[in-house]
Amino acid sequence: MTIDDQSHLKKEEENGTNPKINRYWIQRYDLFSRYDEGIQIDEEGWYSVTHEEIAINHAERCHGKVVIDCFAGVGGNTIQFAKVSSSVIAIDIDPMKVQMAMNNANVYGVANHVDFVVGDFFSLAPSLKGDVSFLSPPWGGPNYCKVESFKMDMLQPRDGYSLFKIVQSITPNIIMYLPKNVDLAQLEELASLSSPPLTLEIEESCIGGKMIAITAYFSRNAA
Ligand code: ADP
Questions:
Q1: Is the dihedral of CA 120, 122, 123, 129 positive or negative?
Q2: Reading across the β-sheet that carries 87-92, which strands appear in turn?
């Protein structure tokens, strides 16, 4: 997206006239409570940023840890991790997203706790070190809810099994933020097929009492 596209989108946002993002725009303060202080979001970002209340919940598990936000987008999760963790590595393949995430982390005053990286997570993975990996991988756009059961092979750009294998080589502490219709049996399978098997905790991520996504917390069994 060019700078011109962005400012056009911004004007449409302000007028509430972009029908594609309107239903997300009305939730802007649920996405970023400090939205009015200069938050930047592009069209893809509107669809995929984690609601702030849920991002705060994810971060609760990461006090004092080094967190890798593997598909950071415009930084909704990164910001909340940065508030409580020891540091955050925020990766996104799209330089514009990283620029927006940096801007947004600045709005929240936490940018100095974050290493922002423009790059392909899959290429970077072998060189990454951290205590927790957070994955909110592309769900394939808003159409994910049109299927009855969201399967691991619908995750992009690689299926959930390959993604999980790669991320496990960094740390067994993995948080995955997934569609609410994700196949839970497949998540159990990811945990049980790991060597050694991982503990899995499933959480319904809710806004206003309504489940909007699933968060899966994987960790190594205590010996
Ligand atoms: P959704 O399908 O949930 O809307 P997106 O397509 O917006 O997800 O993708 C989520 C984020 O992941 C985007 O910010 C995108 O730029 C980023 N992303 C996609 N592929 C990679 C990758 N290989 N490495 C790092 N970031 C990636």
A1: positive
A2: 114-118, 87-92, 66-69, 132-135, 174-179, 210-220, 198-207
Q: What is the distance in A from the centroid of ligand 1 to the CA of 223?
A: 35
The answer to pTM > 0.85 is yes
Q: If you classify domain 50-219 with CATH, what class do you get?
A: alpha beta
Q: Whose CA is nearest to atom 12 of ligand 1?
A: 71
CB 214 within 8 A of CB 205: yes
Q: What pLDDT digit, counting tens, does each position of 28-84 carry?
A: 999 999 999 999 999 999 989 999 999 999 999 999 999 999 999 999 999 999 999
Q: Where are the domains of the chain?
A: 50-219
**Is the dihedral angle over the CA atoms 120, 121, 125, 131 positive or is it negative?**
positive
196 Cα to the center of ligand 1, angstroms: 29
CA distance linking residue 213 with residue 202, whole number of Å: 11
Task: Show the tokens assigned to 84.
Answer: 């409580």
